[in-house]
Amino acid sequence: MKQLVECVPNYSEGRDKNVIDAIVAAIETVEGVKVLDVDPGEATNRTVVTFVGEPAPVCEAAFRGAAKAQELIDMRKHHGAHPRSGATDVLPLIPVAGITLEECATLARGLAQRLWEELGIPCYCYEAAAFKPERKNLAVCREGEYEALPEKMASTDNKPDFGGAWNEVAQKAGATNVGARNFLVAVNFNLNTTSTRRAMAVAFDVREKGRKNPSGEGWIPGTLKGTKAIGWYIDEYGIAQVSMNITDIDATPLHVAFEEVCAKAAARGLRVTGAEIVGLVPKRVLLEAGRFYLEKQQRSLGISEEEIVKIAVKSMSLDDLKPFNPKEKVIEYMMADEKKGLAQMTVEGFTRETASESAAPGGGSVSACMGAFAAALATMVANLSSHKRGWDARWKEFSDVAEQGQKLVDELLLLIDEDTAAFNRIMDCFSMPKGTDEEKAARTKAIEEATLYAAQVPLKTMEASLKALPLALQMAQSGNPASASDAGVAALAAVAAIQGARLNVRINAAGLKDKAPALPLLARADAIVTEAQSIEQQVLDTVNNHIEL
Q: 543 near 484, Cβ under 8 Å?
């Protein structure tokens, strides 16, 4: 899985558009980083920038943004309504996909150290990146704001984690708070009431802090960990809402919060009519919700990602107040490469492209496509079986098969383009210069490496297609008998994919000067064919028994 990190730096400038634009431009100089939002505030004299990318580019962009802020913002002249301690005031790294909070904390500490060593900016580390337990709270790091820095830097206990001298650099740039935190989901739950008091009561019921004890001693905690919430009335919609920040989506996923707010509202005679996500969310938030509601319905989870997201949107009525477009609300979708690959073509478009005079896509990509069809057919039989009348108690059995099938479909669709990319890589190597002995040696080495890679890719197709065969067999044996022929076609397509991919393993292996690395590939390819043919025969025997005339 591709690693994605979000960074949400807050800069102490919200009024001078030229300064803001220059900082954003510095961030955008880093390839692989996408700026999703720029939100300046005049009263706060503060701008919040949101950008996303893989870990290394994000850290580089964060550094460049801080360097530009240090250059253009003078904290000695800064005034605003929001607490602040530096030109780049806070610099949090947030895991979105494929990376843990702990890994982001390590990155944050490294970033803080670099800001000090290369730019001379003093840095405090907060939340998951904190070196001291008390500094997990940002308010502790920023206590006294910019004006308190001279005294704090002179103190053994309160000096920054990196840096500490109140020199010219520190006086101008202030101190930056670099941290790592979980993704914060901002969500408003719509109520069928105009009463702020009742909305606030529901918020008190659920938020982690809860409400003050009527006895006056302490607090009665709410039911949802990692949440903050209040009730308010929105003139624009004419309703009251429970406005919530979910600060720990592992402790309280969005769908859990939705269900709990619904329950607490119902206990007070209210109804939640829907929810409104403010800002962006990681894809997993909606996928987890969609799967949760599918399980509640005892429906198969082995459907497309798009359909799972749609279930989440409809189950929580995320489109209650306005249309909800996942492409504009889900971070991963906003980061998606707009360039369309072979797998995104129509069937006709892919077929026409294959039939053209271009050498790619060729047999390797077509083999991967056949493998994807094989996995898709096995998945289809599983999904049809999970909905068969009288088989309701078996829905989980078929859902598990369908989920496995969907993963194989995704893998094989990627291999359609990877096989063509492998071929193009060889062609690129042949275009390398060969005027000197060094260039010739580099060219020869590159061709050899690209050719080996081109033999490895179709082997991946063989491995993935082989995994589709047991699913086809299981569906032929225990799936809906009316779909037995579909399971048979799945087996035939999988073996065709395997045989076709094997030819591509062999032809690329034959092009290697050093045959040693190819020998294990060829041996594995032969073993896969033998195993696949054995399972294929079992599938066909079973299918033919189902459809005997």
A: yes
| Phi, psi values for residue 455, rounded to 5° | -85, -30
Closest C-alpha among 86, 82, 79 to residue 124: 86
Residue with the bigger pLDDT between 455 and 338: it is 455
47-79 in b/e form (b: 16+ CB < 10 A) is bbbbbbbbbebbbbbbbbbbbbbbbbbebeebe
Q: Cβ distance 361 to 353 under 8 Å? A: yes
Annotate 391-438 with DSSP letters as a single string.
-GGGHHHHHHHHHHHHHHHHHHHHHHHHHHHHHHHHHHHHTS--SSHH
**What is Dmax (Cα atoms) for the chain?**
92
Query: Roughly what angle, to the nearest 10 degrees, separates helices 55-72 and 101-119?
Result: 40
3-state secondary structure 312-348: HHHHCCCCCCCCCCHHHHEHHHHHCCCCCCHHHCCHH
- Cβ-based neighbour number of residue 342 at 10 Å: 22
What does the alpha-carbon distance between residue 36 and residue 329 come to, in Å, rounded to a whole number?
10
The 3 state secondary structure assigned to 262-314 is: HHHHHHCCCCEEEEEEECCECHHHHHHHHHHHHHHCCCCCCCCHHHHHHHHHH
Place of tokens 């799936």: 479
Taking a C-beta distance cutoff of 8 angstroms, is the pair 192, 270 a contact? yes
- Among all chains, which residue has been given the structure tokens 């003093």? 122
Question: Whole-angstrom Cα distance, residue 482 to residue 384?
Answer: 10
Complete DSSP assignment for 199-248: HHHHHHHHSTT-EE-TTSSSEE--S-TTEEEEEEEETTTTEEEEEEEES-
Residue 487 has pLDDT above 90, yes or no: yes
Kindly tell me if the per-residue pLDDT of 89 is higher than 70: yes
Tell me which residues are annotated as active site: 82, 419
Taking the alpha carbons at both ends of the chain, their separation in whole angstroms is: 48
Q: Which distant-in-sequence residues (6+ apart) come within 8 Å of 153 by Cβ? A: 122, 159, 160, 163, 164, 165, 166, 170
- The predicted-structure confidence for 114-145, as pLDDT tens digits, reads as follows 999 999 999 999 999 999 999 998 889 999 99
Q: Which two tokens stand for residue 395?
A: 């829905």
Provide the token pair at 297: 């319905």
Q: Render pLDDT for 210-225 as a digit per residue (tens, 0 to 9).
A: 999 988 888 999 999 9
Contact 416, 410 (CB under 8 A): no
H runs (alpha helix) in 479-517: 484-510
User: Kind of pairing, strands 227-234 and 10-11?
Assistant: unpaired
Please tell me the predicted confidence (pLDDT) of residue 41: 84
- Positive or negative CA dihedral for 191, 193, 194, 199? negative
Q: Is the pTM of this model over 0.85?
A: no
| 501 Rama sector, left if φ>0, alpha if ψ -120 to 50, beta otherwise | alpha
Looking at 32-160, which runs of residues are DSSP E strands?
34-41, 46-53, 88-97, 123-127
Backbone angles phi, psi at 361, to 5 degrees: -70, 150
